[in-house]
Each structure stands twice: as structure tokens, then as C-alpha cells.
Amino acid sequence: MIDCPETLSCEQFQSQLPELIGSGAVLAEHAHLRHCELCKALLADLEAIAEAARQLLPIVDPPEELWEQIESAIKGERESSDKT
Ligand SMILES: [Zn+2]
């Protein structure tokens, strides 16, 4: 078996895809993607899904009480340092 990225079958390439993504490799420059429109389209789909998932994640705002606690903590700090 020839172990060259350009001769990978789509199946072989796709089985390596999670590993490649995890390794932070520049997939657009992968030899297989240079000549395979199918896998290029697949990767674009995956990236679109990943992007959508990121945008769907709820933006967590700190509760109002937290800011009050921080504020009073800062004030308390200031007052105690003023006295000394
Ligand atoms: Zn392919």
C-alpha cells in the first residue's frame, strides 16, 4: 500500500479527518483536498457546522448579583485601606 496523501482514497482521508482537525493542521493545504472536490465540500460542511455550533452556544452573562458582590468587595477593600 502506498502511503502518500495524494493517493489516499476518500474513505482513508475521511477516517483521518478528525485526527487532522484535532492536530490543528491546515487542511486546505492537504494534498488530498487539492485534487478532491468531494472531500473539500465535506470539509466546508464540517466547518460550517462547527461555526454554527459555536454561534448557537448561549452567551453566559454574569448574574446581576455577581456584579453587586464584586462592587461591594471593591468598595469594602477601599474603605478598609482608607482607614489604615
Ligand atoms: Zn476525497
Report on this model:
The chain is 69% helix and 0% strand. The chain is mainly alpha-helical. The mean pLDDT is 80. The site of zinc ion (ZN) has 6 residues, from helix 1 and helix 3.
Q: Largest beta sheet, briefly?
A: none
Which class of secondary structure composition applies to the elements? Answer: mainly alpha
Separation of termini? 78 Å
SSE succession: HHHH
- E-strand count: 0
Strand fraction band? under 5%
**Average pLDDT level:** 80
Low-confidence stretches: none
Number of helical segments with 4 or more residues: 4
Choose one word for the global shape: rod-shaped
The share of residues in helices is: 55-70%
Rounded to an integer in angstroms, the radius of gyration calculated over CA atoms is 25 Å
Ligand inventory reads: zinc ion
Domain count, please report it. 1
Helices and strands in order, then pairings?
Blueprint: H1 10-22, H2 31-35, H3 37-56, H4 64-83
Bound molecules: zinc ion.
Residues 10, 13, 32, 36, 38-39 line the site of zinc ion.
